[in-house]
Write a structure and sequence with these properties.
It is built from 35 helices and four strands. With about 700 residues, the protein is mostly helical. It starts with a helix and ends with a helix.
Amino acid sequence: MFPGIHFFSMPDWHGRRFAICLLVGGLLIIPLGKITANEQEPAAAGRSVDNNVTDTAGQNGSRSPTLADPTIVSDEEIASLIEGLASDSYATRIRCRARLMRIGLAAFDQLREARNHPDNEVAIVARLLTSGLRVQWATPSDSPEARELLSEYGSHTVTERRKRIEGIARLSRDDAFSPLLRLARFETEPILARAAALALIGHAANAHLDHSNIPDQHTAATDRDALEATQIEKSLQQQDEISTHWLRQYADDLRQGKLDVAAWDKVIQRNREHLSLEGDAADSDSAVATSELLKLIRLTAERALLAGYPNDALKIVIDNVDLIPSRTQTLIETATWALDHSLYGAVIAMQQAHSEMYHKSPILLYSAAEANTFDGQTKDASALAEIALAINPLPEQLDAESNPAAPDDGGPVDPNKPAPLHPQTIEDHAKAHIDIADELTERGLFQWAEQEYQLVIDRLPVDTAMSSSARLKLASMLGELLRHGDVVETLQPLAQRINKDDEFRDRLIMRRFSYTVVQSNMDFHRGLLMIQQGDTEGAKPVLREAFNMYQENIDILIAMFRLDGDAKWKAEVATTLDEQIRLARSEIEDARNSIQRVGPFQMSDVELAQRLNAYAWLVSNTAGDMNEALRFSQESLRLTPAEPALMDTCARCYFAVGDLEAAVKMQAEACRLMPHSPPLQRQLREFRYALEQ
């Protein structure tokens, strides 16, 4: 006998409480397959549901064999079914639950609202019914990539579902639009619905609101925008969540074919009135977290820039700079984003609003210095850079003979002199300067990066690991800037110390520093300096020695190939080049064979891509099968897409086979991904010049 039968004789309140427990338990264990329009409802047809909800029955109280589509219902019927979930009758509650499950997404909005119903039993069942497990998130019309990301979407945690949304956002606009709109519409977690809405709007940051002047493309883009606007509007009828307001405004932009900056400013200002703490906003449809609003502000600014409204973009950010949390990492990320989008005034406004935090962080100070430089305030920029350099102080080196250290006599410490730094503190400060210099180099701020590296070199003995690291990294940066003499000057003290100090050399080897690499690199740039100075004959033996010492640096061999010389020199270089090309091809075959073998020494696709790239770079810059070099380069990019260094090689291969337009296009994309690389920029100028001739 069903255990609830004894229970119904208990007082009404207790009976209702026990019944809802059974109901929830039933929901948890009832198989929840896809409910189709042809499925029949449970038995007990014809019984009333709290005098409001009735089932369709046959003339003799039996169910008719054919039913109307259960998903076509009125809002009033759905509301009545939801109230039926609070009925004192267990059977009524079961029928209402089953009917709502059959109705499916048509009841979604009212069920989502019922999640906050004053009757706890109704709220609990509404939450279960609207959980992601009840929604078929993928549709046959979705792309295979989207269907894979949406597979079992509702069974995952909030964190994993957010990752799935981010994955869908990386798909093309055509593949991402419908799934993201579906998630923004039916995701029961408000924070994820807003994430999907932001991802959908974010696709506009990569789209063209001001369409191409080519008539066919303009018409196609306009038609697509109008269709998407219609889909958004139909999907979001009678919705009033914050994410809905965002998407409606986005639909207005699509329909108008342009960004309505003033309208978005109003949306943002209204959202500011509904700001809530990060955790509190997660479960609320009517509140928004600061991080979400900041993302919307960024997207709006990016779209304004793409639409040709840079002043509006800057104003949107500056007007809301007070929303940025006073946390170092958040400020760094926001400043980097603003600099990448040339919103220099926003960075200056951030510095003024968060002055104390800025003066504690060298990276933030340098970001403000960079912004001031582009804003024409060079004095302010230099002052900020000096403050940044002084953070993480390093002691000045003393000459042991002329400035002998005073012995510790046990007396009191002189308060007018700074206390000596602990060796570990010195190493930590030195590493901080090197890390900062690395970031400055990546941003193309070479002058300030050089100062950071040089400070470590000047303040630490040459035989320390940090000083050696600073020298090698500075030399690499200077080499990319073609400052060959400065490379030699930077590396020479290190090479000399290695030559005469076996113990130091062993320590470097333990830290994976190679003496031959240091010496070879120094000779390579010495040879290039001699070429710059017109001494080509003197450069030949220097380059030959540099290559013999470290043959993995194929740029040395490329320099030798390009160097004019007599027949003997050309023959020697040709012989060496032939050996290296055959070796590079052999290494590619070894990598392919290794990938086929399963085991601990199996090579990865990345390693194969590197070997393919090395071959392609060597051949495309010298002599050999240029078409094969292009094929290998293209294969390397298939294995590791969007790698600027590999794209740089592919562009060189296109140039070598005479496809100048493809070379410029590929090189321009590489420079977009790595905008501050001097070698990439030089090659782009070379290709563009050749295309113009």
